[in-house]
Amino acid sequence: MSQAIVVRNFGNAEVLQLEDVPVSAPAEGELRIRQSAIGVNFHDIYVRSGLYKTLTLPGIPGCEATGVIESTGPGVEGFKVGDLVAYVMGPPYGAYATHRILNAELAVIVPDDLDDMLVAGNLLRALTVEMLLNRVARLEPGMTILVHAAAGGVGRLLCQMAAHMGVTVIGTVGSEEKARVATAAGCHHTILYRSQNFIDEVSRLTKGRGADVVYDSVGADTFPGSLSATAKCGHLVNFGQSSGAVDPVAMTTLAEKSLTVSRPILFHYLQDTQTYRAMATSVFEAFQKGILTAKTAETFPLANAAQAHDRLNSGTMTKPLLLVP
Ligand SMILES: NC(=O)c1ccc[n+]([C@@H]2O[C@H](COP(=O)([O-])OP(=O)(O)OC[C@H]3O[C@@H](n4cnc5c(N)ncnc54)[C@H](OP(=O)(O)O)[C@@H]3O)[C@@H](O)[C@H]2O)c1
């Protein structure tokens, strides 16, 4: 038997309720896992609220976790009972649980020198950074990028990796405290975008050129300004909507500066098992080498998932949130 957070109706955080759920033995190609730490992401909030209609009800949300293998199904190779594994997955989700069945293709072994709390709180965001910097846009040393919410979960890791690649990073942040967090992560220039006009600041810092690549996860509040802050022939990557959905963009708007606009979703980049494993290995190595560093996570018992969602949605977090079964 597992205990899991089951969503029976979409709505506010109160729909996240703990229930007893049976867990079967693993079938062909599957693992049974006793979970040790579960990452909480904005995606889970959109799933739970019903904004994304990607969870079949009643259903168990959650895209990432770590856990220990309790048993392996027939035909599973490369894993054994007792291994600590991690995974990131889109629909049908299911991470908000004490125990679960997992397709072995989704599991990656956690290296001995990384702990489960670090991995469960950062794998999805670090894979997102790998996707954004190496696959969606191709960054080269000397480029200038603008990162919105630069002290956030993804933003902070994005600053660390981009600075390591020799890119000049301009970051927007919501407070002086967050400016310090972004600067410590390698952000070269911070802009307090609630009190300063970030378009003017980016123009000043780039001598009127604009940023070569803009990473915008804030969405509604920043997207029009991001179009203005992108250099001619530049690339605006909208990968989130923390402040609300982005309005449609006319092709003629892009033509004004020959802009490229992307709207990537991590799960689409993880569909090929080999690519997924290569990306996971690369971010594990980045943590092992200290290129990426993790902040100690804030933890909640699994039963308090609703509280964790409200905390993440408050927009005040500068460290990962974990549910601990
Ligand atoms: N496309 C993908 O595959 C993918 C993958 C992972 C994450 N994401 C997206 O990336 C974004 C960042 O995720 P994260 O987990 O790292 O979160 P986060 O950046 O830690 O938190 C969001 C930040 O956005 C800023 N913000 C601005 N307006 C906001 C509002 N109205 N409500 C809440 N926050 C607001 C806040 O920073 P300031 O105070 O500095 O403004 C807040 O800290 C999310 O939108 C998430 O959905 C997308």
What descriptive keywords fit this protein?
single chain, 325 residues, alpha/beta, Quinone Oxidoreductase, Chain A, domain 1, Rossmann fold, seven-stranded mixed sheet, six-stranded parallel sheet, 10 helices, binds NADP nicotinamide-adenine-dinucleotide phosphate
Protein described:
The protein has 325 residues and is an alpha/beta fold. The chain folds into two domains: 2-123 and 267-324, Medium-chain alcohol dehydrogenases, catalytic domain (Quinone Oxidoreductase, Chain A, domain 1, Alpha-Beta Complex), CATH 3.90.180.10; 141-263, Rossmann fold, CATH 3.40.50.720. The chain contains ten helices and 15 strands. The strands form three sheets. Strands 3, 4, 5, 6, 7, 14 and 15 form a seven-stranded mixed sheet that branches. A six-stranded parallel sheet has the order 10-9-8-11-12-13, with helices on both faces. β8, α3 and β9 (168-173) form a beta-alpha-beta unit. α5 (198-205) runs parallel beside α6 (223-229). The model has no long low-confidence stretch (mean pLDDT 97). The protein binds NADP nicotinamide-adenine-dinucleotide phosphate. The site of NADP nicotinamide-adenine-dinucleotide phosphate has 27 residues, from α1, α2 and α3.
